[in-house]
Amino acid sequence: LLMALPIAAVAFSLTACGAAVERPTTEEVSSGVTQILEDGGYVVGDGEDAQFTPAVIDCIAEKLVDSEISDQDLANLAEGKDEQTSQEAFTLVQTTMADASTECITASME
User: How confident is the model over 62-78, as pLDDT tens digits?
Assistant: First the structure.
């Protein structure tokens, strides 16, 4: 079984950013989330030892991009940085990631 572990398990740091950024694409966020998970010791792939498949990561990334997470916080994720701009953003990313992980992993098992 895949374990739905939100990015909360990875160390977080809060940063303030003032420059305007464009909203990253689903593909960019998927790449960054993959990097964050792999840096956290998770296996992403299609093998038996994989905790997350690329399809699940793509699903999660799509839900993150479609959410109310700010462009800057998504850009940080897309860059493989688990950093949020405020405590409120931190909570939103955590909640969205947990919900998306559960939904996407469940859908992949059907």
Answer: 999 999 999 999 999 99
CA atoms within a 13 Å half-sphere pointing along the CA-CB vector of 44: 19
Residue 64, C-beta contacts closer than 8 angstroms, at least 6 positions apart: 29, 33, 74, 77, 93, 96, 97, 100
Q: Which two tokens stand for residue 91?
A: 């909570």
Q: How many residues does the chain have?
A: 110
pLDDT at 21: 84
Strand (E) or helix (H) holding 13? strand 13-14
Contact partners, residue 99, CB within 8 Å, separation at least 6: 63
Structure tokens belonging to residue 86: 């405020």
Tens-digit pLDDT profile for residues 19-64: 578 999 999 999 999 999 999 999 999 999 999 999 999 999 999 9
Give which of 80, 30, 90 is closest to 59, Cα–Cα.
30
